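For the sake of transparency, this paper describes our internal protein records without simplification. The record that follows is passed on verbatim for readers who wish to inspect the format:
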Amino acid sequence: MLRPEVNRSGEMQVFVAVVEGGGFSAAARNLGMSPSAISKLVSRLERRLGARLVQRSTRSFQLTPEGRDFFDRSTAILASIEDAERAAGAAVEAVGRIRLNSSSVYCTHVLNPLLPEFLALYPGVTLDIAQTDTVIDLLADHTDVAIRTGPLKSSSLVARKLGETPIVIVASPAYLERTGVPRHPAELGGHTLLRFSYTRRVRDWPFLVDGQIFSVTPAGAVQVNDGEGMRQLALAGVGIVRMSAFTVADDIAAGRLLPILEAYSAGDREEFYAVHVGQGGPLPSRVRALLEFLAERGRVG
């Protein structure tokens, strides 16, 4: 039966030091212990094993056959322990594959431009990126990190906020020239409103009219399952879209998309988080490196 109070690896380390040093005094100097402490430890080891390991006198030190066998086995075991610790410690260097799940707009406008910098910092890391706006089960999908918006529903997930962004209503100049610019949220009923096909926390488009929330339900003929696809449709003049401001900021600045109904903005914002499973012990260094990088360089808003 195992005896937890016995430090077997420590005993092996001392015994190996005695053999390699050729005696108790040399081992004591190498280990920073007294010769008497070394002698007592070896005697205690022999009593526990029920075998004499060394023949010793004031002038000689010689291994018994049992001692030679124990020395060989101890040396191999200590080497295996060192190899195991070295392998575990390699994780500190942030190596290995990271499975990342993210919305297409975050990848396009935030993550992708930063990838060269991240990979240069951590050359031992490989990234497996899946782009989808659909909420996934991180455990079932074997995902290390996911970029999500809005509050978390699962208590098993840990989130690190990456910022927040206003929501804007935009359309292309070509679309507005063709259909006219809506001046009031009530006029949106005569327009093509592009909507997302996946379940969202807020399905209706909220506006603030005379101090009250005025909601419009998008019911256009076109629906999309990802934000970047929605942006492309807006640029093509298909209809009006409601999106995170950071995804269309460059388009607005360049005049490719025009904000509308700004005076009726409800002031709602979309929060972005990097989430990971919080159970199961410390995070691998590669995952921790990505989370810290995103918290510093991958912020939105």
The two ends are 61 Å apart (CA to CA).
